[in-house]
Automatic annotation (TrEMBL):
UniProt-recorded name of the protein: DNA ligase
UniProt xrefs under HAMAP family: DNA_ligase_A
Cofactors (names): Mg(2+); Mn(2+)
GO biological process: DNA repair; DNA replication
Length: 670
């Protein structure tokens, strides 16, 4: 069937536009149109190619993915070998390289090109008459594998070269890599599905490129950055840096960190500067490649064995090394969470000697399958805490031992809890555990808890550091003579603090429950518990089953409450506080009639004349209501005072009832 000429023109125009947009987006990082417009162009092209299948061609941007899985990869022989590079591991070795080049060339200064050494997979791309015809891995340098279909799925690899001055035949070389963000996202998704994760971005890139089904490769966030030319039918510029810029014009991505440097001293500075920014880069690098810029000088320098004399890779300190896991200890954090810490045979990694590494949590120990005595791979990047990333199972000996998980807190001997579905172990001795002491006392003294005016964070830290306070109960026995010795604490300040501590003895049951710092028991839940149980003894002696009958208390919160009060150390501190004189008005357990607003949610807005909004909130909560800070479809009603603002407008737009102050007073009548 004859294809209308206007369709042929439109298809050609669409392909040019889409290729140009791909170049702007994937190579220049400078998109010219929104994603929605790009999608419309691609859909239109796909529609026309479906209507006129005779127009479909391999170089169409619509054909990046879709080939049937291959049974195996064919072998490709490189016309020009893809050689490896010699390495330098110190400034002295880099300067020796420079000296050798200068002596062979008999010159005093050499201009170098510096490029980050991407931690990925080297590939070769062959173009004929401007179209990609073959892509291959480096392999052994002489022969690689034909992975054309997989490479076609990578958007930063042009299927058709841009411009009109393209060579008839061009082989481009570059590195395929997986950016850090894409790597972490891929692993998170794989872990959520229970699938295998990759150890590092390099392995992820290699595994993605060697998929027999290119449709799988297409789902992986891969990029390609070119670093040179193997074969070219046309004459190229005389400098390597100029060649890279020409490749960029033809549609290839080049590294933005690439620089031309006038001397080896400038190379030193470049190395240190990029090493300091290594962790901020969006991709992994393991060093810097320095190349003589002028092609004429390169030709004169030539090659030795399997490496060019005109280039060297100055490697960064290794971020991964192998060592032995000698023991595992569990450390208690300020919130009570236990973190397993690997004690290692010291190993030099990431520029420092490492003897400890984090194992994160019990789930990570299980995922790694690690045992004491195992050979393990340690990863350290920049200032990030070193971590165990893999067990070398092949080197496991017969005398390895399972990691023993503690059954009680290693600091205070309180019981440990682990909520179903969570990876963390936590100490239940929140009031007595020295690892949690500072945070527990800060919370206890805070304004919405016991409201001890003047007992700020820095003062709490001094009291704990000087061992004047071991639990919240010790606050009520602090001698003035001890307080005046503290930094910025005079006689008057010490007396004011003692007076504030004394005032705090008279509180409410809800405030006291909140002050105890039971995990996930906030102000609202504390008030609900106080209203529901009426006394602390009733709460202490309750069960998880009973707690589940309390409004807004779910299984996790119920479990935390029972675990907290089950711990004898916590009960001892509570008794000490009561003995010190901390008390609250007795209240009877409310009846269901008194909790007439259970299940209802109100929002307060504007200025009330008969009471403050805080008073109104407390009265509503005493009747079992929830008082929210924002309006939603779940809001029962909005109580509006004078000068009500956006909350009133939103309630009106959602059709939610509006109550005034008279309605509020009627609501509060029991």
């Amino acid at each position: 069937m004859t294809t209308p000429s206007h369709v042929v023109s439109e298809v050609e125009q669409l392909r040019q536009e889409i290729n140009q947009h791909n170049y702007r987006y994937y190579v220049l990082d400078d998109p010219a149109v929104p994603d929605a417009e790009y999608d419309r162009l691609l859909r239109r092209l796909q529609q026309l190619e479906q209507e006129y299948p005779q127009l479909v061609s391999a170089d169409s941007p619509s054909q990046r993915v879709g080939a049937e899985p291959a049974s195996a990869f064919a072998t490709v022989t490189h016309e020009v070998p893809m050689l490896s590079l010699d390495n330098a591991f110190s400034a002295d070795e880099l300067h020796d390289f420079d000296r050798r080049c200068k002596e062979r060339l008999d010159i005093t200064d050499i201009e170098y090109v510096a490029e980050p050494k991407l931690d990925g997979i080297a590939v070769s791309l062959l173009y004929e008459r401007g179209k990609l015809v073959r892509g291959a891995t480096r392999g052994d340098g002489q022969r690689g594998e034909d992975i054309t279909q997989n490479l076609r799925t990578i958007h930063s690899i042009p299927l058709v070269l841009l411009g009109e001055d393209v060579p008839d035949r061009l082989e481009v070389r570059g590195e395929v890599y997986m950016p850090k963000a894409g790597f972490h996202q891929f692993n998170e998704q794989a872990q959520a599905k229970g699938e295998k994760t990759f150890v590092n971005p390099r392995n992820a890139a290699a595994g993605s490129l060697r998929q027999l089904d290119s449709r799988i490769t297409a789902t992986r966030p891969l990029e390609m950055c070119c670093y040179g030319v193997g074969v070219c039918s046309d004459e190229l510029p005389g400098d390597h840096s100029q060649i890279l810029h020409q490749l960029n014009k033809w549609g290839f991505k080049i590294n933005k960190e690439m620089e031309v440097l006038p001397s080896i001293q400038a190379c030193d500075k470049y190395y240190q500067q990029l090493l300091s920014r290594r962790e901020q880069l969006s991709y992994e690098i393991d060093g810097i490649v320095f190349k003589v810029n002028a092609l004429a000088l390169r030709e004169e320098l030539g090659f030795v064995s399997r490496a060019p004399r005109w280039a060297i890779a100055y490697k960064f300190p290794a971020q991964e090394e192998m060592t032995t896991l000698e023991a595992v200890e569990f450390q208690v954090g300020r919130t009570g969470t236990l973190t397993p810490v690997a004690r290692l045979k010291p190993v030099f990694v990431g520029g420092v000697t490492v003897s400890n590494a984090t194992l994160h949590n019990l789930d990570e120990i299980e995922r790694l399958g690690v045992k004491v005595g195992d050979s393990v791979i340690i990863h350290r990047a920049g200032d990030v805490i070193p971590k165990v990333v893999r067990v070398v199972v092949e080197q496991r000996s017969t005398d390895v031992q399972d990691i023993i998980v503690p059954t009680e807190c290693p600091v205070c001997s309180s019981e440990l809890e682990r909520v179903a579905g969570e990876a963390a172990l936590r100490c239940t001795g929140g009031l007595v555990c020295s690892a949690q002491r500072k945070e527990a006392i800060k919370h206890f003294a805070s304004r919405r808890a016991m409201d001890i005016d003047g007992l700020g964070d820095k003062l709490v830290e001094q009291l704990v550091d000087q061992e004047l306070v071991h639990s919240a109960a010790d606050l009520y026995a602090l001698p003035k003579d001890d307080l005046v010795t503290l930094e910025r604490m005079g006689d008057k300040s010490a007396q004011n603090l003692i007076d504030a501590i004394e005032r705090s003895k008279h509180t409410t049951l809800a405030r006291f429950i909140y002050a105890l710092g039971v995990r996930e028991v906030g102000e609202t839940t504390a008030l609900t518990l106080a209203n529901y149980f009426g006394s602390l003894d009733a709460l202490i002696n309750t069960t998880e089953e009973h707690l589940l009958q309390v409004p807004d208390v779910g299984p996790v919160v119920a479990h935390h409450i029972v675990c907290f009060f089950k711990e004898k150390n916590n009960r001892d501190v509570i008794n000490q506080l009561k003995t010190a004189g901390v008390d609250w008005p007795e209240q009877s357990q409310p009846t269901q009639e008194k909790l007439k607003l259970v299940g209802k949610t109100y929002v307060l807005t504007g200025t009330l004349s008969v009471m403050s909004r805080d008073e109104a909130k407390q009265k509503l909560q005493l009747l079992g209501a929830k008082v929210a800070g924002s309006v939603s479809k779940k809001t029962t009603a909005v109580i509006a005072g004078e000068k009500a603002g956006s909350k009133l407008s939103k309630a009106e737009s959602l059709g939610i009832p509006i109550l005034d102050e008279r309605d509020l007073l009627a609501l509060l009548e029991t």
